[in-house]
Design goal:
about 375 residues; 7-stranded antiparallel β-sheet; 5-stranded antiparallel β-sheet; 14 helices
């Protein structure tokens, strides 16, 4: 039976208000006007950059109803067709270190997540790492979205880097189970006591990790010597241990392929094949260092530090080479990334100020600011 507190895409303006504990963040269904999409764009600012097809002459309609879980936010969202994008500037403005899990109840999208092609159809569940770039082109849709802190999900999987851009088939067992759970978070979210929200989120993270485990294994390398590792069921454990070792030693100049081969007792071909999906082990290490640099450069608490000092902390000794690698990875220079973060803070994305949004209120921006502190 449909939950009366969750609006349908065709729900009339006279629909009842959301139940207690549910926040209607945006509603362009009632009396839609020319400014509706601008309000939508502002509501999603810091999460996505959005744009409509130029030939779309239909009035924009959309709505967002959210449940605040403290550490996480669950939304029931519907809207017309548009492009969603996260590039380096969006990531710098948003300041989020979360995973985004989406169930498409109606509609879907085609897109890519850092080179991984994606196709999502009704019933499918997809996952994005919000510290990384992505772009999707969606038709008219309705979805359930969960914004979950990295700290809750990443420790539960051996290779969290493999999560970005994964899709669970809605007809599969794991897909159906996770879809039902995400819908229950929307349907019952208003009834959850704040004291129970933490344990519920921990259980949700465990369910997500379990449901995506096979998809992660299938996304990895499957040929040559590395395939033996996959067949023996230890690839994820080996890669997970390597990733943890790499992340713990990113500042060390002794972090080399040879050091990994020696520590984990594997051959060079196996090491390279295991990291094939990341462009090789050296590329993986460089990418992890660049992400740490990005986080530090866009951190307001480190705005006083020289960019070259931050780069040196994470193993980059050549300023020119660092700037070139940074731009290649994030699409903007280190200086521009810092400027985008500082401008977002000055505009009120990071402090307590708000802006009135056509069709809604600044609630989603408030919730996003709250998530940044988790």
């Amino acid at each position: 039976m449909p939950n009366p507190s969750v609006p349908r895409p065709d729900q009339p303006a006279s629909a009842p208000a959301p139940a207690a504990g549910v926040v209607r963040l945006f509603d362009a269904d009632a009396g839609a006007h020319d400014a509706a999409f601008e309000g939508w764009r502002l509501a999603l600012d810091g999460l996505f950059d959005v744009s409509r097809p130029r030939d779309d002459a239909e009035p924009f309609r959309g709505g967002i109803v959210a449940h605040d879980f403290g550490q996480a936010v669950v939304t029931d969202t519907h809207a017309g067709g548009q492009r969603f994008r996260r590039d380096g500037r969006t990531i710098a403005r948003g300041g989020l270190d979360h995973f985004l899990v989406q169930l498409y109840r109606q509609g879907g999208f085609d897109g890519e997540a850092e080179g991984r092609d994606m196709a999502v159809r009704p019933g499918d569940v997809c996952l994005f790492d919000l510290s990384r770039t992505m772009q999707t082109d969606a038709g008219r849709f309705r979805n359930v979205t969960l914004l979950l802190p990295r700290t809750l999900l990443a420790p539960l999987v051996d290779t969290p880097d493999d999560l970005h851009g994964l899709v669970l088939d809605g007809s599969s067992g794991p897909g159906r189970i996770l879809a039902a759970h995400l819908q229950s978070l929307v349907a019952q979210g208003a009834l959850i006591d704040p004291a129970d929200a933490g344990p519920v989120l921990e259980g949700t993270a465990g369910l997500i990790a379990g449901c995506f485990r096979r998809a992660m294994a299938l996304a990895g390398p499957t040929d040559g010597e590395a395939a033996q590792v996959v067949r023996h069921g230890v690839r994820d454990a080996v890669l997970g241990a390597m990733h943890r070792f790499i992340d713990a030693n990113l500042t060390s100049p002794e972090l080399t392929p040879e050091a990994l081969m020696q520590r984990f007792h594997i051959s060079r071909p196996t090491l390279y094949r295991l990291f094939e999906s990341s462009g090789g082990v050296v590329a993986h290490i460089r990418a992890r260092r660049l992400r740490r640099c990005f986080a530090a450069i866009t951190d307001p608490a480190q705005a006083h530090r020289r960019l070259s000092d931050i780069a040196y902390d994470w193993g980059f000794t050549d300023d020119t080479a660092f700037a070139r690698a940074f731009r290649r990875s994030f699409g903007l220079s280190p200086r521009d990334a810092r400027r985008a973060a500082l401008e977002a803070r000055a505009a009120g994305h990071h402090d307590g100020t708000t802006r009135a949004l056509p069709g809604g209120d600044p609630g989603l921006q408030r919730l996003i600011r709250q998530l940044r502190t988790v």
